[in-house]
Every structure is written in C-alpha cells, then in structure tokens.
Recover the amino acids of this structure.
C-alpha cells in the first residue's frame, strides 16, 4: 500500500511539474480569404511563452501570471504582417507591446483611437473574420506603424519579431491557454499584405497548437505513473 501511495504521489508531482513548467506553445495558421495565388500560411507562426521561457529565449522578465505572445514570418515569399488580432474574453487581459525582441525590430500600436503618423488606429476586426464560423470577433488588435500610408514597420523578414505580453486573467495558466486555443475560446488572427508578385493581402487564423516534445514526454510519464498506481490498487483489492 505504501508503494501504491508513493506511485500516485510521484505521478501527481510529475503532472504538476508539466503544468507549472509548460513548454512554449507553437501556433500555426490557415488562410481564411483567397485573394492571392500564393498561400503564405506555412511561413507564419505565433509562439506563446511562460515566465521562464520568455526570459531564457528573449531575456524578457515577465510575471508568473503573464504570457509572452510572439509573431514571426519567415518571409520566404515576400509578405508583411501588418495587423494582428486576438479574439478572446476569458483568457488574457491588459497587454504591453515589445517591438525589439529580434534583430531588426518592428513597430506596432494597439488599436485605441490614437493618431500615429497621421493615421488613426481605430478599433476594427480581422478582414474576412466574419466569413468563418463562428465569426472572428476581435477583442484587441495591433497595427504596424505607418509612414505615408505604408506600414513599413510590419513583420516582413525572418529577422522580425513582434512581442505582446498579456496579463492572464485570474486562475489562467499556460495549460489553460493551450486548452483555449484547442477549443476556440482563444483565437489569433493576422492580416498580411504585400504578398508575392501580385502584392495583395490575405487574412489568417490559427488552426492548431503543437506542444513541445519534452512536454508530451513528461505528460506521458505522468499518465503512466497514474495508470501503474491504479493497477497496483486493483491488485491489492
């Protein structure tokens, strides 16, 4: 019986460790509009980091109740992420923009009605967002800073990274974020311009999340531990 309790205890500790030290979440995208011949979904990515990984990856200090969202574009096909959007109401709260996480830096402003370089950043929705089911309804959005109408500080090379740190709402952790992405409670959108030879624009929404292999391995160990403990209990009965 002592061994049984020990097995269950170790399994519980393992599962807790997976939750407390969750690896970064990788988010991939699919195109929801069809304006261009080239579909650049495969070169767009968002990664979500907890406190430890935000520091180890970018040297950025955030709170234990915060998460760093990053947006990148390999730009193998010419393209420019000019707006990013969040559709959420139960996961994240206030945010702060970090434009210089990578080599070249970008420049983004939250849609809040302010005027930047002569352009008013009015709140809006992801273009084409109403065409999907359920409709994408932006609760927050950010636009690349413009000069003469051109969003020159968007994400248009592999060296560009936009970072936004969100306060997670009470009771939310990285595991909750993962679950919300999987069930659609939390959605991420991008509007990408200057795509390929035609130079048009398309919109993209996240479709899947991929936990790091280390997280899957630890989770498997925890599940195995629980299963082993339960079998021992059944035998003892």
């Amino acid at each position: 019986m002592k061994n049984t309790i020990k097995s269950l205890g170790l399994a519980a500790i393992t599962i807790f460790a997976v939750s407390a030290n969750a690896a970064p979440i990788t988010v991939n995208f699919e195109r929801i509009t069809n304006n261009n011949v080239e579909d650049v979904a495969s070169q767009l990515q968002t990664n979500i980091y907890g406190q430890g990984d935000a520091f180890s990856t970018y040297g950025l200090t955030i709170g234990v109740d915060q998460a760093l969202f990053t947006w990148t574009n390999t730009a193998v096909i010419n393209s420019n992420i000019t707006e990013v959007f969040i559709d959420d109401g139960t996961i994240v709260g206030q945010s702060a923009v970090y434009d210089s996480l990578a080599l070249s830096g970008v420049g983004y402003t939250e849609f809040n009605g302010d005027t930047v370089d002569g352009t008013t950043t009015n709140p809006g929705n992801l273009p084409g967002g109403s065409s999907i089911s359920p409709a994408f309804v932006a609760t927050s959005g950010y636009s690349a800073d413009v000069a003469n109408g051109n969003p020159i500080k968007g994400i248009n090379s592999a060296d560009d990274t936009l970072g936004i740190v969100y306060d997670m709402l009470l009771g939310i952790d990285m595991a909750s974020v993962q679950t919300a992405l999987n069930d659609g409670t939390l959605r991420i959108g991008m509007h990408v311009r200057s795509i390929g030879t035609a130079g048009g624009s398309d919109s993209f929404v996240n479709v899947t999340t991929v936990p790091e292999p280390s997280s899957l391995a630890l989770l498997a160990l925890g599940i195995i531990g629980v299963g082993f403990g339960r079998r021992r209990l059944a035998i003892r009965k």
Observations:
- The two ends are 10 Å apart (CA to CA).
